[in-house]
Amino acid sequence: MPSETASLEVTLPVAAADRIGDLLEYGTLADKLEYDHVWISETWGRDLVTVLAAIAERTDDVGLGTSIMPTFSRSPALVGQTAATLHELSGGRFRLGLGPSGPKVIEQWHGIEYERPLRRTREYLDIARMIVAGEEVVYDGHFFDLSGFKLRFDPPETPPGIDVAGMGPTAVEMAGRYADGWHALMPTAGGFAERLEDLGRGLDMADRDREEVQARVFVPTLALEDGERARSLVRLHLAFYAGGMGPFYRNSLSRQGYEDEAERISELWQSGDHEAAAAEIDDELLDSIAIAGTPAAAREARDAVRDRAGVDAVSLLFPVRATRDDMLQTIENLAPGAGSA
């Protein structure tokens, strides 16, 4: 049986939806099926603030959050204002997830130098926390020197939690030291356990308890009657991230014992042979990172991830080439009550 403490969540796609109405449909379905939270990140597609505001107006209970809101595309003050506003609009259901994104997106899309991403994320976290608490912002950092302003409306009675996405040891340690949560992006079971040690080191530095920080795992997922198609699409998704989205995902695979595979995937993807890159992801690697297959097999894998030591929440993340029907079926097939006796 799944752990009673590991909630089940949905991460909306940033690239696969043809219509904004699809994203709203996924969010409202997740609310209806009693998922705990709906997340959305931001790359070069739709902005996440507009999407979350629309979902907030159409839902009643499901939590809403950013995973991740990049710490280069908006000022930290605007991030704090936005978090407070979305928390107010949703009736206290919002949670802010921050992260630096990657150099490709930041430098080639936003035109901003990707300088000291972890330090920048730390300053965003500090400043946003002061803003949502209604404090006057007085801050002297490496990037930002702020003073003299605070929110012009009453802050939320209970401020939103602020999470940090992290794949490497230092980023995860920072989450344990300063944030309310850690977003673990596509780790293997062994890799997650190793990063928990980094999280614990950060907690120790700040003299904090483990219960103060939520650890949520974001898992590429498809649960379809055509189980082989589900696995093929998820393989391609993993190859796209390891081979085409900069060094972070490739380095993460290498740290988790898949250095040779990560290098081959990257070389093949960059050469344009995407199918061969995906073929480098064998069943063992696929099943260590993803939830993919028939509904019955996927539910078993879902419960195994929820049972991992230290996992507080599991968020289902859809591959980039999944269709609207693929995602709707997966949300229904893996809903919290699906498959129960």
From the structure above, extract its key features.
TIM Barrel; 8-stranded parallel β-barrel; 341 residues; 14 helices; two-stranded antiparallel sheet; alpha/beta; 48% helix; single chain; globular
Structural summary, described in words:
- The protein has 341 residues and is an alpha/beta fold.
- It has a single domain, classed as Luciferase-like domain (TIM Barrel, Alpha-Beta Barrel).
- Helices cover 48% and strands 17% of the residues.
- It contains 14 helices and twelve strands.
- Strands 1-2-3-5-8-9-10-12 form an eight-stranded parallel β-barrel, surrounded by eight helices.
- Helix 1 (20-32) runs parallel beside helix 14 and helix 3 crosses helix 5.
- It is globular.
- The model has no long low-confidence stretch (mean pLDDT 94).
Question: Gist?
Answer:
With 341 residues, this protein is of the alpha/beta class. It contains 14 helices and 12 strands.
